[in-house]
Design brief:
This protein is an alpha/beta fold. It has 13 helices and 34 strands. Strand 18, helix 9 and strand 19 form a beta-alpha-beta unit. Helix 6 packs parallel to helix 8 and helix 10 runs parallel beside helix 11. It binds ligand 9MR.
Amino acid sequence: MPTLSSRAGRATLGLLMLTLSALAVVVASTSTPVRAADPVTVLTSSFEDGTVQGWARRGTAELVENSTAVAHAGTRSLLTSGRTASWNGPSRDLLTTVTRGTRYTYSVWARAAAGAGTVQLRMSVERRWQGTANYEQVVNSTTVTDGGWTQLTGGYTLANDADFFAVYVETVSGTASFHIDDFSLSYLPASPIQTDIPSLKSVFANDFPIGAAVGRPQLLAERGQLLAKHFNSVTAGNAMKWDATEPTEGVFTYTDADAIVAFARANAMLVRGHTFVWHNQTPAWVFNDANGQPMTATAANKTLLLARLEAHIRAVGGRYAADVSAWDVVNEVIDENQSDGLRRSTWYTITGLDYIRTAFRVARQVAPNAKLFINDYNTNVAAKRDKLYNLVAQLKAEGVPIDGVGHQQHGNISWPTGAETDSMIATFIPLGVEQQITEMDTSIYTSSSESFTTPPADRLTSQAARYKAWFDVYRKYKANITSVTFWGLADDETWLDSYPVSRKDFPLLFDVQLQAKPAYWAVIGAASPTASGPASPSASASAPPSPSASPSRSASPSPSVSPSPSASPSASVSPSPSASASPPPSGSGVPPVPCRVKYTVTNQWNTGFQGDVVITNSGPAAVNGWALRWTFANGQVVNQSWSSTYAQSGANVTITNAAWNGAIVANGGTVSFGFLSSWNGTNAKPTAFTLNGNTCALG
Ligand code: 9MR
């Protein structure tokens, strides 16, 4: 693999081709705002010198030659003709050009040869390791004509071991001749991740694990650091699916899944398994009958298909039985447009409901420690939600071992609302199942006709508000929600770049350079430190100053849920009924200690810190509405809190409950909240706390 210095040398040579300024964005950390570097081009092929510049044919028959017939720029291009297979086309060896773990942008201009009309082209890579080849697409099917040039652009990270690596251009079908020109390969130099911001997993430590769906690229270099810093759960985005694990019957491949599980082990992360049964990404052989023909609905085929399903789950589920804490056993089986609510997949048409029953039964046997989920999208849509509810109720009544419902939560900047998300969760509570948010992201688009190469500031502000509305609901229902997972790590790589149309999308909490976005600050309950910059929430956003900004009491944040008057006592609330209902133990002579407070500094950086507080009601009466008070010794000033409302007068801090957590059940019930505060010099923990006027025990 090339060293950094050799890469820098090539970079200098390639600086003429800087065409990706659209990806250069302003980023910031809490301490030092940094400007993203410009992209660096490591290879270009213009063909203007009359040679093929290292390009060669993939097959044995086609002709790859320098051509003066047409040119994208200058007078020459590369023509490929005489092709005998769709996958044979011009190829360029890149093994010593790319660095493993770096995401490159691949760009090439293409044009069908004169008289070839319209063809579909795509750009792919072939990587090999010890004799095994893998093929992946960098740019999906793109329409190209003989009347002009079309650009194919996409991103790819070589993350696996490779002893051969090449890019090539191919037709989707047919053997038309075509030209390519002005190929370029470039990358954005990595920015260091922000190490001085609160980690998501610590902010939500008392609520639920926070996860990200990843592939191998997300385990490496800065992306691996970002993953390990913020997340304590991981989902394999593709690596545990059927096409990845059993591409051929009985032949199992675990290379990428093993790498993800090893990373999770090394970093003490939970693993969500995704997924045993889906109608997509399932190899064709699964649905072929004993004669290799597509199955029809016969008893023999049903037996065969269920046997394959069982064998698959035994192998994959068994391999990861010690590692996977939750499996998406079946994925996307609901179709709300069917009267019975069941998707008419091949699984369904051959086996009816039995594929679901079999999958859960076998999964329980081979992975007895994993929680078993049914996972779906649009579960916030009432019609779909209710069909899913009915199916889960039926399966549970039958004794099918189903533990939970997974809500994918693929949304956009205006949908679904907090209220829709709230009723999505509330609906399933009576079933007594766990609920997990499994694939969350928030597209910046609300229609397929929009396209931005950099995300407009107002979209990022709306996105932040959308995420905040959802997280308010998740926190409210934290007793029912056992995991919250994003479908991706950062905006540099998202499935939404190619769905529903090809365009760049920016749906996650970290930007293309892995820096925290306004959505990140909204989710953790603080304002973006880039508040005056181009990609920040508006100044009127209901958010407090950043952890590094000087605190301003007037910029008091709204808590994650506006407290309702009935459940939110004022800071000057007098002792709660629980105090009077809790007489001192007779004869002890010791004042009652009806509460216990655990105060933890979970993160501390140069000027700020994050505190998490757990209050335990150790008295015999329920608390209904609470105010916790302490005094800071070193001038600390609270500037944000969540799951609560804060007020501070001098050194005296008063935290009151949010609308939804005013009740603390008797004899050991707990509530928790978090806050951000400034500090300077010394940050001693408070030594005394009162709850509704009663002194609490510590720890
Ligand atoms: O993120 C996955 C993407 O890389 C695949 O190309 C895609 C196609 O099948 O599947 C994506 O993941 C899907 C997940 O497995 C199920 N819910 C929808 C997700 C986004 O399409």
